[in-house]
TrEMBL record, chain A:
InterPro entries: MetI-like (IPR000515), MetI-like_sf (IPR035906). Pfam families: BPD_transp_1. Its main location: membrane. The chain crosses the membrane at residues 46-66, 107-131, 143-164, 176-198, 219-241, 277-297. The keyword Acetylation does not apply. This is Cellobiose transport system permease protein. CDD domains: TM_PBP2 (cd06261). Belongs to the binding-protein-dependent transport system permease family. PANTHER family: ABC TRANSPORTER PERMEASE PROTEIN MG189-RELATED, ABC TRANSPORTER PERMEASE PROTEIN MG189-RELATED-RELATED. It is found in: Cell membrane. Coiled coil: none annotated.
From TrEMBL, chain B:
Residues 74-292 form the ABC transmembrane type-1 domain. Belongs to the binding-protein-dependent transport system permease family. The keyword Repressor does not apply. It comes from Mumia flava. Its main location: membrane. This is Cellobiose transport system permease protein.
Amino acid sequence: MTIRPDAPPSDPAATSTGRLIPIPHDPELPTPVKRRRRSLRSASPMTYLVLTFVVLISAGPLYYMVVMASRPNSDITSVPPPLTPGGELGTNADRVLNSPDVAFVQALINSFLVSAVATITVVTLSSLAGFAFAKLRFKGRNIFLLAVIGTMMVPVQLALVPLYMLMGWLGLAGSLWSAVLPFLVTGFGVFFMRQYIVTAIPDELIEAARVDGASTLRIFWQVIFPALRPAAAVLGLLTFMERWNDFMWPYLTLSPENPTVQVALQRLSSGYYTDQALVMAGTLLGTIPLVLVFVVFGRQIVSGIMEGGVKA
Amino acid sequence: MTLRDRLARLDIAGAPYLFIAPFFILFGIFGLFPLGYTLWVSLHDWSLLAGDQGFVGLANYSELLGDDYFWNSLLNTFAIFLIATIPQILMALGLAQVLNTSLRAITFWRMGVVLPIVTSVAAVGIIFSMIFARDFGLANWLLSLVGVDPIAWNQERLPSWIAIATMVDWRWTGYNALILLAALQAVPKELYESARLDGAGAVRQWWSITIPMLRPTLVFVVTVATIGGIQLFTEPLLFNPGANAITGGELRQFQTSTMYLVEEAFTGQRFGYASTIAWALFIVIVLVSLINSVIVRRIRSVD
């Protein structure tokens, strides 16, 4: 795979049309996609049937999670398996939230803190660096940008052991800081913001501010940053989802007393005797926040994925 | 030159570096340094509690070559990766085609296919281990309706691979379909029109226009799937709840290499050896990515 600063692998539109940068579209405006739709063959009833089937498969396991979270434990191991929700959701949820074994409420708060801090830093620092790469001239720009893209290829998981040692040296082992520090910046974020800024911010805007005597930082803060809202929202959503759902690193670094939701779920499900209804209720509680985010911002998430080849 | 001019000049020259510095500093400390340090640790006898016990050169690497558990984990990783990735890419291609029609409620369908990504990998592991439970799981019950005997999904090798591959595909197929859809929409319509005038049928058009035009995106999708597949950890870990989850079943029938790495590092407390596994995996990822891109590149030679 060849990697060039202007045509990265993560940018399908760029590589297939010769257009170097996907045009970020505001959801309020008619998009090129919508214009093109007219020339497409219209969907047959068969198409809708296939799509309905696919959506049912997408939603099926989530529905099943609700079914099992709302049943008494005895129902879960019955044959045939229950296929409709029961009336125990409140009881099961209550048992998770007040579990003596796992600090579930604390876990929800922890997940929120970790995800929120990472989201804020990723969005802010990506905007800053993305702006520099998109609009400022400096020596070594292409090489630095290549390095940013290169970081996307580095599997952080494979650096687990030194990362664990590093947290020990810093005296942060087991603390929430250790869960969040490795994710304060992402190469993807920088690249995503750069692509947006290149097309969405006209050079004249920056030149005009410069003529007025504004410093570069001031230009960024007062002119650029406010204009980045649509892209920042998409990047923020995807970052929040990724951090909320992360399992491996928090599982290794956090103590059982101070877990994130995903770690708490693993602890709930790994006992010698597993209370399945309890585990399912916990899984549901850990998934609901993201389902809500998805229902409210689904359109942006979809366009974010389609624009950037986003890893969620 | 006035002070004001000097400051302005300094600002122009220095600001870009100031703006990109936070990214590189943080990535350097928490991304690049650990990766390089893994190499250093892998050359030592280094344990979790006792610390560095001295330089041992390539001893960890030669031990790795003769380590059956490692090769077993690599076999599992590859088997699951192949079982998951090939159908995933094919299904995503098909789904992208279906979505690339003039649909009503287009956003609803697109959201519907990527709905699984809101589910955390841990949740996926938990939900699917219930679905694949031997005695009361949904999967075996459905199979029993067509007369298939219950399968011990997490006790036998091939069934456990299939179950884990199913989890991976459920979460990622729709996501890949959306990326491929974006690429499909960028294919110029004129290409199809002129192909039609030349008398090319639907299959010919798909093979000679669509696939070559999708090639760069396919490289991307396959590469991401590969990197993810080789690092597979959470789904198999949660597929086998209990005290020894990290071994991937009693006979290590679905222990992936990342699981083995974590087992050696934290259960076996062998940081040096675990770092060796990490570097071996990194090399495997690079090799497989190269092979992938060669394969996908050949697709172009069709036209």
